[in-house]
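A reminder from the course coordinator: this example appears on the midterm review sheet, so study it carefully.

Given structure:
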């Protein structure tokens, strides 16, 4: 049994990662989220994982202003820090962005009450991680949290993660580290070797744990991680827990309390939050998560939960659901050819899109998406393993490859970008960021819908 003085705390991921993993980020609109915020603020979470650029883009496409959600949270959340997440390379969508845009995004997030920034850089590019952390602190972020994204490959060993951890914490701007198992790939056995290695190499900084339930093992891994000294866990509230989402806080709290850990959460507030989510699910005809059957093939394709949901939805829209098995096999093959990229945003989307194009077109790499071209050109960092030479030749032969290969990404100022995009100085920074990242048509339709509701 644990010492009862050892307190365990929780990061709530329900409205961000839970929503994204199970409902494709479109399940919760502004009104739904803000209706729960006062209750969430009472629970006693260490922080609320509130928003990412993916959610902002989905909000615009559903004709809502994502900044209104941020402003609403700023008014309603008075006790709990809440966070925004970034890769440090992009905002909405998978378009590379200059550092000036990153800085402006973070400035506006802080202005809307964000005090915690999590950085999930898919290639673990230390320069990007440290630069983004510094930008966060300069913008006024109080806690910078860096993800060590977990994957399985011949090169992603405990030694790899030990070296990565040492490099990440070699910055005065990094406050916290978290082990991010976006694919739910960790096992209790690997936990017992990996977590001690990380603890020994993060220079005394706090270590948080984040794992999805895609293989069904995450709840067990949480218990093992607690026994090894982890004291902060990322969890979700049902029905937005389990499945490709994260473990239910109810289950984790029950298990850790049984083991003697001190947990100060408001159980009644959690129940109220869960009840509200169930009402939303019933009204929208949406399904909650459940622990899946164990699928050993998952350790090969490693598609994260949100990506699985998105790909299946896209296949359904094309009446091609029957080809899911082919795409899963092709994902495994493409990932190996591209140097075992970690299957986390945006690289998981690049691999999944390339695999889908290969299967649907019937000819591998006949079409190469822009993201794969940028990745192969080094715009998203150096692959952990070099790309297969034959595949690199096919990618480099793409008609658009010359736009990215052997070229530096231009670092333009906000003034220059406003001029290029035709967004004048009378337009707010928040609207500019939407128009820079999305089409004018999408933003115009969002604004028209908002005006129609007010009229």
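Designed residues:
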């Amino acid at each position: 049994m644990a010492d009862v003085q050892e307190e365990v705390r929780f990061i709530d991921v329900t409205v961000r990662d839970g929503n994204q993993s199970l409902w494709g980020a479109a399940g919760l609109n502004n009104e739904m989220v803000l209706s729960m915020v006062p209750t969430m603020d009472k629970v006693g979470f260490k922080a609320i994982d509130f928003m990412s650029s993916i959610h902002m883009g989905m909000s615009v496409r559903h004709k809502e202003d994502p900044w209104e959600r941020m402003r609403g949270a700023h008014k309603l959340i008075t006790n709990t820090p809440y966070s925004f997440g970034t890769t440090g390379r992009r905002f909405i969508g998978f378009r590379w962005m200059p550092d000036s845009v990153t800085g402006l995004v973070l400035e506006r997030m802080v202005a809307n009450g964000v005090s915690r920034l999590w950085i999930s850089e898919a290639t673990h590019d230390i320069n990007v991680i440290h630069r983004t952390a510094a930008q966060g602190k300069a913008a006024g972020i109080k806690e910078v949290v860096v993800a060590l994204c977990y994957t399985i490959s011949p090169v992603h060993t405990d030694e790899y993660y030990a070296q990565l951890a040492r490099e990440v914490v070699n910055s005065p701007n990094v406050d916290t580290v978290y082990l991010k198992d976006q694919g739910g790939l960790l096992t209790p056995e690997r936990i017992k070797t990996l977590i001690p290695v990380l603890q020994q190499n993060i220079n005394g900084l706090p270590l948080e744990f984040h794992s999805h339930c895609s293989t069904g093992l995450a709840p067990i891994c949480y218990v093992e991680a607690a026994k090894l000294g982890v004291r902060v866990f990322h969890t979700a509230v049902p029905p937005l827990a389990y499945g490709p989402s994260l473990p239910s806080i109810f289950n984790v709290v029950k298990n850790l309390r049984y083991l003697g850990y001190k947990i100060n959460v408001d159980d009644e507030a959690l129940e109220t939050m869960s009840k509200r989510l169930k009402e939303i699910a019933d009204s929208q005809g949406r399904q909650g998560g459940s622990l899946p059957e164990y699928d050993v093939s998952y350790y090969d394709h490693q598609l994260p939960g949100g990506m699985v949901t998105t790909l299946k939805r896209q296949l359904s829209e094309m009446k091609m659901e029957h080809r899911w098995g082919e795409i899963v096999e092709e994902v495994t093959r493409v990932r190996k050819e591209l140097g075992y990229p970690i299957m986390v945003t945006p690289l998981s989307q690049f691999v999944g899109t390339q695999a889908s194009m290969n299967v649907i077109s019937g000819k591998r790499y006949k079409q190469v998406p822009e993201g794969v071209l940028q990745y192969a050109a080094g715009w998203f960092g150096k692959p952990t393993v070099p790309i297969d030479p034959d595949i690199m030749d096919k990618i480099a032969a793409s008609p658009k490859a010359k736009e990215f290969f052997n070229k530096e990404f231009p670092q333009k100022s906000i003034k220059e970008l406003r001029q290029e995009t035709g967004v004048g100085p009378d337009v707010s920074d928040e609207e500019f960021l939407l128009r820079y990242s999305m089409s004018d048509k999408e933003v115009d339709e969002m604004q028209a819908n908002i005006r129609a509701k007010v009229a």
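Residues 267-284 form the longest helix (18 residues). The radius of gyration is 21 Å.
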